Amino acid sequence: MVREDENPPTSQPGPSPNPHSVQKSPSGDPRNGRSNTNSNSPLSRNDAQSGEEFISSVAAKIAAQPLQYSDPDVWGVLTAISEKARKRHQQGMNMLLTSDEHCIGRLVDDARFQIIAPAVSAHHCKIYRKRVVTEDMEHPSDGYSVFLKDTRSDIL
């Protein structure tokens, strides 16, 4: 389930930056002792991208790759996108989804799905799948649909 704002923010297109007036980032300058070593990484961020565009771009690149897990019970993978999330020791880079339902939060029973961070509530959300059978004669389906339920108690 995707929650959408009733009045999503609109952005006004701005003028394109002049390539001669854009300053280069000091991170790529070898004179300051720092170098941009991971410019081809899906996590390298172009400053012109908004946070939402960056996340969508990285997610699309990751989703385009096939799952490479030999465990037949894995039906999905939640992959960390931010550097901070990737450094979490308990989950590592991926959370493997194997049960029909997983709860994510600070105080959930399964330690693989615990996220200890102030912005995460005790029982933050639940991701689950349900079998869906359609009787559409042109497109018969006997698969699963995946849902995300916000279970935070601090929302109205």
UniProtKB/TrEMBL annotation:
Alphabetized InterPro entries for the sequence: SMAD_FHA_dom_sf
Region of interest (Disordered), residue spans: 1-52
Classification via SUPFAM superfamilies: SMAD/FHA domain
Biased composition (Polar residues): 33-49
Domain of life: Eukaryota
This protein's name: FHA domain-containing protein
Species assigned in the record: Sesamum radiatum (Black benniseed)
